[in-house]
Amino acid sequence: MSLDAVIFDPLLPFWLMGALALAMLAVLVFAVFRRLTGWPYRGFALVCVFLALLNPSLKTEERQAKADIVIVVVDRSSSQMLSDRAAQTQAALAHVTQQLADRPGTEMRLVEVEDAAGPGGSEVMSALAQVLSETARDRIAGAIVISDGQIHDTEFAPKLPAPLHLLLTGQPRDWDRRLVVKNAPGFAILGEPITLTLLVEDQGAAPQAAFADLILSVDGGPEQRYQIPVNREVEVDVSLGHGGINILQFSTPDMSGELTDRNNAAVVQINALRDRLRVLLVSGVPHPGERTWRNLLKSDSNVDLVHFTILRPPEKRDGVPVTELSLIAFPTRELFLEKIGEFDLIVFDRYKRRGLLPTEYFESITNYVRQGGAVLVAAGPDYAGANSLYRSPLGAILPGRPTSRVFEEPITPKVTEFGLKHPVSESLERFAPDIGWGRWLRQIEVETTSGQVLMTGRGESPLLIVDRVGEGRVALLASDHAWLWDRGYEGGGPQAELLRRVAHWSMKEPDLEEEALLAQPMESGLLVMRRSLTEGSLAPLEITKPNGTQLTIALQPVAPGRYEAEIVSEDLGLYRLGSGDLEIVAALGPAAPREFVQTIATDRVMAPILAKTNGGALALSEGLPKFRNIRNGRPSHGRGWIGLVSREAYVVQGVEIGQFLPAWVYLIFASLGLLAGWLREGRWGK
Predict the structure, then answer these.
(1) How do residues 242-251 score in pLDDT, each as one tens digit?
(2) CA torsion, points 43, 46, 51, 55, in degrees to nearest 10?
(3) Which residues contact 256 (CB under 8 A, 6 or more apart)?
(4) Whether the predicted model's global pTM rises above the 0.85 cut
């Protein structure tokens, strides 16, 4: 294609050409004022001279027409797979492709958008902006989005130089039901009810229903059924039965005719905490380690500590009247008989029988442990004597029998092979300085009667023994010199971490259970961790995915007593995991992915974007649209049609510039004008 145009290249400067034009105009005005009959001819001559000075040229461009570009974005997200939307999308895409093929000089740029990574969703506008950044804007005739209108990145909508149209999938009769948890706390007090606000919402052309069934399951346990009103927020009270993470799954049954049941469930993870951990610390004699226990227990704001210290034993005879020794009597009967069940842990620190606690008190403590309580004994030299706690009714539950020998020499605590697996003592080595742990200076020799030895001292003699008794737990530390680690003696050691673990294991902290199955989300799926003290191979991991698919994979050892398995999956929702007798549920992402939060097709989300580009939305349920060519700024859509702008873009491939007329032609015309004026005013004018 070529195009001719006239351009001017004056022979004189512009200011001089302007002055000359004014002078010529003045001469003509003077001739008209004097009524000279030849002024038109003389004016013609002046114009010819002025045109010659303007030096007109003929510019010829060789142009190549460029095709109009129409961007077509096809939404292939999960919500587009509902009902017959996939078939609608394919039919619309085929129709658009054919219409653009029949439109002369048109090129189609096709982009298909799937679910976004992470939380998911339809990122249609981001895909459109990406294509637009790679396309010449003067060639954009329009953009077409084939979608259900439920997009999730409207804030990234680009500025378009042409109309943006939405071809809307879906049917007017579509309806769906979804379950929403409006509020749920991240933490809760164990045993106390918590209130959650729920909403069962019907969307679209839903049938009239006043109530819906609600099913609640905690950690995949037995189902609890309720009936709640539809389209109205309700409050549900739930009590958590164990410490740590509790997974609550709410669901409502699938209804006939609804688009999907993927949004009929909601998963809430709540960490259950004990209200307050109550610890009774009984110190037999004042000694440096007493402060260590007190500091450890008081440093935890969640612990209520009752400290019972014997400052003056009964056998001491110093003549001080009893009435001057204390203001009130210590409530031993109340603590050890009446309210002993209120304590989560009882610690005996270098305590021996002195007659202060009668036999019935020790029997009460023994029953307290069997019924779910916990006792921790930090043994000193008194444990090896005749007044040892082991020689009281408490000895029936203690895991170590004293031999009456006390080693007053440096010993280096070591974790046993079994202790490397146990959560109380595993990975303690990472707390060791370069020179290793510091030594303790005393150990009570004991013989193991029950339980597991986690640490040893002199000559492989048991140093730390733990045991389960009935529903409760017992721990025995056969030394009163753990405080040397706290003081940094010979480099110190993990005293605070060790004693914290012993205490919290005794109080049944979920993170310190010997047999446990845990799961945590990661970028590619779930990481499943199995802790076990079992020798030999473990039962494989059995997995039930959110869609009901079942599979079995082996757990791989990663450390003593620890096994892991990685579940690579993109399916969001609730996973049921089992290994042997252990079963848990784990949530990967929301139970209802982002694509299924709102499932009814609508143009409301994209309406503001369409309005800015003068575009429109047409429902495919009403038929496939026709295409029309429009001018920019004119109405671009109507009933059954959408418009595309004819851009007529081109590129210049070559330019030729030639003289418009030879100079002698201007001279001839100017001479003829002067001659005609002379004749008109001279001979012809007579």
Answers:
(1) 777 788 888 8
(2) 180
(3) none
(4) no
| Sign of the four-CA dihedral 367, 370, 375, 379 | positive
Cα 363-366-370 angle, rounded to 5 deg:
140
Contact 677, 42 (CB under 8 A): yes
Q: Are 474 and 467 in contact (CB under 8 A)?
A: yes
Query: Which tokens go with 197?
Result: 């606000």
Please report, to the nearest 10 degrees, the dihedral formed by the alpha carbons of residues 513, 517, 523, 524 taken in order.
Answer: 160
- Coil/strand/helix, residue 329: coil
Contact criterion met (CB below 8 Å) for 599 and 263: yes
Distance separating alpha carbons of residues 333 and 283, to the nearest angstrom: 17
Q: How far apart are CA 409 and CA 459, in angstroms?
A: 12
pLDDT tens digits along 591-642: 567 788 889 999 999 999 999 999 999 999 999 999 999 988 788 999 999 9
| Cα–Cα distance for residue pair 647/633, rounded to 1 Å | 12
> Rounded to 10 degrees, what is the CA torsion of 529, 531, 532, 533?
150
Q: What residues contact residue 663 under an 8 Å CB cut-off, 6+ apart?
A: 52
Q: What are the residues facing 644 on neighbouring strands?
A: 629
What is the DSSP code (8-state) at residue 327?
S
CA 641, CA 24: separation in Å to the nearest integer?
59
**DSSP letter string, 487-521:** TTGGG---HHHHHHHHHHHHTT-GGG-SSEEEEEE
d(CA 108, CA 143): 10
Q: Report yes or no: 28 and 39 within 8 Å, Cβ to Cβ.
A: yes
By the 8 A CB rule, do 346 and 305 touch? no
Instruction: Find the helix or strand (DSSP H, E) in which 50 lies.
Output: helix 39-54
Alpha carbon distances (Å) from 603 to 48, 145, 287, 613: 65, 11, 77, 15
Question: CA angle at residue 350 from 346 to 355, to 5 degrees?
Answer: 80
